[in-house]
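Run log // design_07
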């Protein structure tokens, strides 16, 4: 398992945008845009209202907004997603219990 370099805890509420070259885990309430060149995890206590863009995205919390994964997006069992999902062909894992409402758009890897 990779070490998470950035963390927003459940006692945080933040508005704005985040750009990072490292991995990021969110258990906070975040409103805005998140961009990582590594990975983004929305934990079971996380609530994100906005776009997330990263090679690897894992959601086990609540997201309202578009998710753009360059390699893989994993919707875990507690996830509640309302927004569009963009992944390369074969880049979506959906676990039992996870919910998704929106469009799913697949593209060929670059």
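design_07 sequence
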């Amino acid at each position: 398992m990779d070490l998470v370099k950035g963390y927003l805890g459940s006692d945080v509420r933040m508005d704005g945008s985040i750009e990072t070259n490292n991995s990021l885990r969110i258990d906070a309430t975040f409103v805005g845009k998140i961009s990582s060149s590594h990975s983004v995890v929305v934990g079971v206590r996380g609530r994100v209202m906005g776009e997330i863009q990263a090679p690897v995205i894992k959601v086990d919390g609540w997201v309202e907004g578009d998710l753009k994964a360059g390699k893989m997006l994993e919707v875990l069992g507690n996830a509640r997603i309302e927004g569009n999902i963009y992944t390369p062909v074969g880049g979506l894992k959906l676990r039992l219990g996870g919910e998704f409402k929106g469009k799913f758009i697949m593209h060929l890897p670059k």
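The two ends are 26 Å apart (CA to CA).
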